[in-house]
Amino acid sequence: MKLDKNTKVLIQGLGKDGTFQARRSIEYGTNVVACVHPKREGTLFDENIPYFETVKDAVSKTNANVGVIYVPAAFAMDAIIEQIDAKLEIVVCITEGIPIHDMIKVKNYIKDKNTTLIGPNCPGLIFPKLKIKIGIIPSNICKEGKVGVVSRSGTLTYEAISQIGEVGLGQSICIGIGGDPIHGTSFVDVLEFFERDSNTDSIVLIGEIGGTKEQEAAEYIKNKISKPVVFSIAGTTAPKGKRMGHAGAVISGKMGLAAEKIKALKDAGAHHASDPSRIGETLKTII
Amino acid sequence: MSVIKIVRISLMNLHEYQSRNLLNHYNVLFPLGKVGSSPEEIYDISEEFFGKVVVKAQIHSGGRGKAGGVKLCNTSEEAKVFAKQILGRKIVTNQTDSDGVIVEKLLVTEITDIQKEFYLSIIIDPDFESPVLILSSEGGMDIETVAEETPEKIIKLQFDPILGTKPYELRKTIRSLNLPKESQSDFINLILNLYKAFLETDSTLIEINPLVLDNKNKLIPLDCKINIDDDSFFRQKEIFKLRDKNQENPIETRAKDFDLAYVKLDQGNVGCLVNGAGLAMATMDVTTKSGCFPANFLDVGGSTDKEKIKEAFRILVSDKNVKFLLVNLFAGIARADLIAEGIVEAAKEASFNLPIIVSMRGTNSEKGFSILKNSNLDIHIAKNLGNAAELLTNLSKDSINK
Q1: Are B124 and A153 an interchain contact pair (Cβ–Cβ within 8 Å)?
Q2: Nearest Cα to B108, choosing from B55, B44, B40?
Q3: Is beta strand A271-272 parallel, antiparallel or unpaired with respect to A229-234?
Q4: What is the ipTM of this complex?
Q5: List of residues 6+ apart from A209 with CB closer than 8 A
Q6: Whole-prediction pTM value?
Q7: Which residues of A touch B234 (CB under 8 A)?
Q8: Contact B281 A235 (CB under 8 A)
Q9: For residues B53 and B109, is the Cβ–Cβ distance under 8 A?
């Protein structure tokens, strides 16, 4: 995954939310070079950014290398596939509510391609140093710094970012990987990126109940991560068997329990923020 | 990994009789039977089978056998008496909440003799990122218990997203079950038919438990359960017409109609209005830790508008246990000013005067705060989640002291 001064962003899906968020990204300083809409070819978004009918057209005319998707769930699989086919390096899918059978197809299709998929059902990413915002993370809470943030939950990503700011620190890159049971980039992929990234000195990881992705992250931290990691697991008090909003967040079987995840991460040497309001505080104690 | 995680990700469940009808289209055949909703009807159906029948309550829950929802009858009169007892009543099982679910329909089927029982299901396994087949010789049992206690009795087979099943693999697996030859190909065909149904109906679970081998070596699925991916609504409209709202918690149904996620909790007096599942859970963790317990929480999701917020507010305060309202929002795709307007309007409508603790950050949060401050509501503004929990603890202490 590469983000730098040459990152050129393409936006697909400019309805009410997409338009609002596109404007916030542009205001922040993101280099948005193209918009894709099947019926607006030849016109300009906000009198400035050209519309294209297809992603391939947009890429060949503008050299966009990163795509973001806001299209409705029913059409989101097609949009992801279209962006993969146009060989975008990173595809960020914000859309929530994509059928799980569609995501099985997407994951199978992307396997041998060079595209990194982030999401779906995620807030995207933000890179304060270069003022790149791809997705919906509010930029007003971000500050340039050295803490890398990765989270399954959108709003909890913001919570972590804002707590980092409250203790006087800033963020290198923040990435929300999404709350669906089947998603693109995993905790491990992002951890690997943070370990290599010279802008990142420490890592905040926000997990939640359900699944075993936090245990995979723990294993990776134990073996491959030299930078300090602070973590919090949401849902420690959630009753068993209730679906807690996120489709992925259902405790079912022992592995999904918060206690199992906390133990695995602690054993891997990560620092536990005892509740989600103490992320900043915990980070401060180790820096 | 030997442990099984059946992630039940759907809220859209089908009744057994609906699942049977659906699977009939895929050549999956069940014991003969009919559904009825009055004791007289149940009597008449039983007569067709000379009184030797199984009568099964149609509810959205497993564990109904143990809860008294299934009866083996020897005469039609017996079936009628059972129907009289159970129709219109609520059944509480180990999978329902304490209110239970209502029985409005009964399925009457012929009796099957049982030589051997199996468990068979297709689910989506997030670790494999594909559907998997789960098979066990321990039919009729709760599969999660089997997985925990005797994991060696469970066979797990991954479906390839393109190939589906690999016939050689399937043949080998079925051979290991030591079935009579003629039943082996029936077993394979059953799995292929179920998989076709699984894909075409956007299922997240198709479970046949038990699948039995009768004395004539015929394979017969006795019970089945189907869950459909809620997110497939846009292309599975026919199946969603089968939704039985009477089986759902009425408040959850109301929330769902407004595209809100509502979770009712068993204890507590704090109504929580949040956006995002992660923040909802975090809010619950932090308030619980500070000694206050949520009564419920309502997730208004990413994209939200004033009407949705108003409905969310109405739903939250309709819970009589709610003594405080905690609003914890981090606006990303949502906008704090619209949320604030919604809260103020809904509170006015409902003449709501209980304390509201508000933590609201992100897009347009300043505007949102000024809207709230200028209202006449009992608003307590928290600067972050930890602070919100503190305010809540103080307020609840005050109210106890009063």
Answers
A1: no
A2: B55
A3: parallel
A4: 0.90
A5: A233, A234, A235, A236, A238, A244, A249, A250, A251, A256, A257, A258, A261, B281
A6: 0.91
A7: 73-74
A8: yes
A9: yes
Q: Which amino acid type is present at position A88?
A: L
Rounded CA separation A12/A20 (Å)? 13
Q: State the pairing for strand pair A49-52/A124-127.
A: unpaired
Contacts of B273 (CB under 8 A, 6+ apart): B297, B298, B300, B309, B312, B313, B316, B325, B326, B327, B328, B329, B343
- Chain A nearest-CA residue for B203: A101
**Per-position DSSP letters for A143-170, written without gaps between them:** -EEEEEEEES-HHHHHHHHHHHHHTT--
**Could B126 and A211 be called an inter-chain contact, meaning their C-beta atoms sit closer than 8 Å?**
yes
Which residues of chain B are within 8 Å of residue A16 when distances are taken between CB atoms?
303
Nearest to A136 by CA among A114, A120, A163, A154: A154
Q: How far apart are CA A198 and CA B189, in angstroms?
A: 56
Question: What backbone torsions phi and psi does residue B339 show, to the nearest 5 degrees?
Answer: -65, -45
For B194-237, what is each residue's pLDDT tens digit? 999 999 999 999 999 999 999 999 999 999 999 999 899 999 99
Q: Which two tokens stand for residue B338?
A: 């619209």
Q: Measured between CA atoms, how close is B184 to chain A, in angstroms?
A: 29
The 10s digit of each residue's pLDDT in A20-35 is 999 999 999 999 999 9
Q: How near does any CA of chain B get to the CA of A198, in Å?
A: 28
pLDDT category, B260, cuts 50, 70, 90?
confident
- Contact between B325 and B380 (Cβ < 8 Å): no
CA-nearest of B32, B18, B29 to B238 is: B18
Question: In angstroms, rounded to a whole number, what is the distance separating the alpha carbons of residues B151 and B173?
Answer: 16
Half-sphere exposure of A260 (CA within 13 A, CB side): 16
List, as one string, the DSSP characters of A202-271.
Answer: EEEEEEESSSSHHHHHHHHHHHH--S-EEEEEETTTPPTT---SSTT----SGGGSHHHHHHHHHHTTPE
Contact at 8 Å (CB) between B143 and B134? Answer: yes
Between CA B383 and CA B59 the distance in angstroms is 46
CA distances A155 to A63, A67, B11, B296, B299, Å, are: 32, 22, 23, 19, 11
So what's the pLDDT on residue B264? 80
Write the CA distances from B288 to A237, B267, B282, B285, integer angstroms: 7, 11, 10, 5
Task: Determine the angle formed by the axes of helices A154-166 and B277-289, rounding to 10 degrees.
Answer: 60
CA dihedral in degrees (A83, A96, A19, A152; nearest 10)? -90
Terminal Cα-to-Cα distance of chain A (whole angstroms): 27
Is the omega angle on the peptide bond into residue A239 within 30 degrees of 0, that is, cis?
no
Cα A191 from Cα A188, distance rounded (Å)? 5
